[in-house]
C-alpha cells in the first residue's frame, strides 16, 4: 500500500483528488509548528485520509521537544500514530531518540515510530531505540519508483519504507515523498490490529503472540534463565522483597517483551496498560492457598493502574511467607532477578515466556 507524507513544502491544490493516506509534518525543535499542519490535518481527517504526524528533531532537550510535539498534535483519534523524524548529527542518537520516544509514549499512551534513512540505520548502534517501529528512507535511483528494499539493521523489519522524494500526486504541486507499507489499511488504522498505536513491539499479524508471565517479590528463586518449565512447576517462594510491606506474590502477564523488566506503569494511562498487558487468570496453584487481598487488575494505586494481581495467602500479613509459587504456564525462563541490586521495588522475580 502507498502512503504520502506532506509538509508546508507540498502545496495542496485539490484535496478531493488525493486518494492516498497521509502523514503530516507537525513540529520541529521546541517551538516551530509547520504552518500547514492544522489545515492539512483537518482536510485529511474530513476525507478519512489522515494517519499520523511527525516531529523533526533539532537535538535540543528530547523531553521538551516531545512536549512541544504532543501539545501541537492535539487530540489523537483512534488509529492515528506519531513519528520522530531523525535526520541530524548528534553525539548519542540512540539515547536522544529513546528519551524523546519514551516521553511521547508516557504522554499519549501510544507507541511512536522512528523515521530515519538507511545510512543512519546501518551506521548507528540503535540498541534501545530499535524496540520502536521503523520508518526507513532509501531512494535508490530516486525516479519515483521502488528499487531494492532497504537494510533494516537492528530492526527485524520496517513498517514503512520511503522509496522516493520525486513522486507525483494529483492535487499536489511539485514532487511528493512516496512510501510503501506491507500492511493493509485495516492493520494501520486498528480495524484488525493497530500496528503503531496498540503494539509495543510491532510485527506482522500472522506472527504468533508471545506472552510473558512475571512473578515478583519472591523470597527465593528456584529456576535460572534458559530453564524450560511446565505448568505447575515450582519456580520460587512467596516473599516480601522489593517495595512491599508484607509477603505476597505480584503476578502479571505482558503481551510484549520490554527493554527493562523492572519498568513499572506509574504515570501511564489505562489505555497504555491495556495495550501492553493482559488480564491474568490464575488457578489454585499460584501460590498454594491464596486470597486476592492486594491490588487487583487495573486498580488505581495512587500512582498508576496496577498491571496484574497481588496474591496474598489466607489470613493476610505474612501468613504465606515461604509458600511455593508454581508456574501458571508452560514456557521458558527468560529473566531472573536475585535481588542483589535495586530494581524499582519488584524484589526477586522470575519471568516465563509462553
What does it look like?
With 354 residues, the protein is of the alpha/beta class. The protein has two domains: 2-189, Glycosidases (TIM Barrel); 212-353, no CATH class. Helix content is 15%, strand content 27%. The chain has six helices and 19 strands. The chain has helices at 37-46, 62-73, 93-108, 118-123, 185-189, 270-274; strands spanning 2-6, 22-28, 32-33, 50-56, 81-85, 113-117, 134-137, 160-167, 176-180, 212-221, 228-229, 234-238, 249-254, 277-278, 290-291, 308-313, 324-326, 331-337, 348-353. The strands form two sheets. Strands 10, 11, 12, 13, 14, 15, 16, 17, 18 and 19 form a ten-stranded antiparallel β-sheet that branches. β4 (50-56), α2 and β5 (81-85) form a beta-alpha-beta unit. α2 packs parallel to α3 (93-108).
Tally of separate domains:
2
**What characteristic shape results from the CA principal axes?**
elongated
Distance between the termini: 33 Å
Q: What is CATH's topology name of the largest domain?
A: TIM Barrel
CATH architecture of the largest domain: Alpha-Beta Barrel
Mean pLDDT: 85
Instruction: Count every helix, treating DSSP H or I runs of 4 or more residues as helices.
Output: 6
Q: Main beta sheet: strand number and arrangement?
A: 10 strands, antiparallel
Oligomer: single chain
Give the number of DSSP strands.
Answer: 19
Low-confidence stretches: 190-207
Radius of gyration: 23 Å
Task: Give the CATH H-level superfamily of the largest domain.
Answer: Glycosidases
| CATH C-level of the largest domain | Alpha Beta
Find the structural class using helix and strand composition. alpha/beta
Estimated helix fraction: 10-25%
Amino acid at each position: 500500500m502507498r502512503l504520502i507524507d506532506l509538509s508546508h513544502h507540498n502545496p495542496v491544490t485539490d484535496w478531493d483528488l488525493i486518494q492516498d493516506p497521509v502523514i503530516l509534518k507537525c513540529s520541529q525543535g521546541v517551538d516551530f509548528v509547520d504552518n500547514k499542519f492544522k489545515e492539512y490535518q483537518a482536510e485529511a481527517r474530513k476525507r478519512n485520509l489522515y494517519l499520523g504526524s511527525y516531529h523533526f528533531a533539532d537535538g535540543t532537550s528530547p523531553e521538551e521537544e516531545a512536549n512541544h510535539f504532543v501539545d501541537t498534535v492535539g487530540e489523537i483519534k483512534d488509529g492515528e500514530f506519531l513519528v520522530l523524524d531523525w535526520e541530524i548529527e548528534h553525539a548519542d542518537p540512540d539515547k536522544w531518540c529513546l528519551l524523546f520516544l519514551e516521553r511521547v509514549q508516557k504522554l499519549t499512551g501510544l507507541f511512536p515510530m522512528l523515521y530515519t534513512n538507511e545510512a543512519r540505520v546501518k551506521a548507528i548502534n540503535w540498541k534501545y531505540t530499535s524496540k520502536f517501529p521503523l520508518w526507513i528512507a532509501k531512494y535508490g535511483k530516486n525516479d519515483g519508483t521502488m528499487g531494492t528494499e532497504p537494510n533494516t539493521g537492528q530492526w527485524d523489519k520496517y513498517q514503512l519504507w520511503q522509496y522516493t522524494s520525486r513522486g507525483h500526486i494529483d492535487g499536489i504541486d511539485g514532487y511528493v515523498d512516496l512510501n510503501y507499507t506491507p500492511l493493509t489499511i485495516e492493520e494501520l488504522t486498528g480495524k484488525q490490529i493497530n500496528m503503531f498505536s496498540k503494539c509495543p513491539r510491532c510485527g506482522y499479524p500472522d506472527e504468533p503472540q508471545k506472552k510473558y508471565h512475571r512473578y515478583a517479590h519472591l523470597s527465593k528463586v528456584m529456576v535460572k534463565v534458559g530453564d524450560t518449565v511446565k505448568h505447575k512447576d515450582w519456580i520460587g517462594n512467596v516473599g516480601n522483597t522489593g517495595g512491599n510491606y508484607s509477603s505476597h506474590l505480584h503476578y502479571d502477564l505482558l503481551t510484549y517483551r520490554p527493554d527493562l523488566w523492572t519498568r513499572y506503569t506509574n504515570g501511564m494511562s489505562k489505555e497504555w496498560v491495556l495495550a501492553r498487558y493482559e488480564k491474568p487468570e490464575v488457578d489454585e496453584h499460584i501460590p498454594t492457598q491464596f486470597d486476592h487481598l492486594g491490588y487487583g487488575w487495573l486498580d488505581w494505586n495512587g500512582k498508576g493502574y496496577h498491571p496484574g494481581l497481588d496474591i496474598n495467602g489466607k489470613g493476610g500479613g505474612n501468613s504465606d511467607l515461604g509458600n511455593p509459587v508454581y508456574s501458571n504456564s508452560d514456557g521458558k525462563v527468560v529473566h531472573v532477578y536475585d535481588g542483589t541490586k535495586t530494581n524499582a521495588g519488584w524484589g526477586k522475580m522470575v519471568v516465563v515466556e509462553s
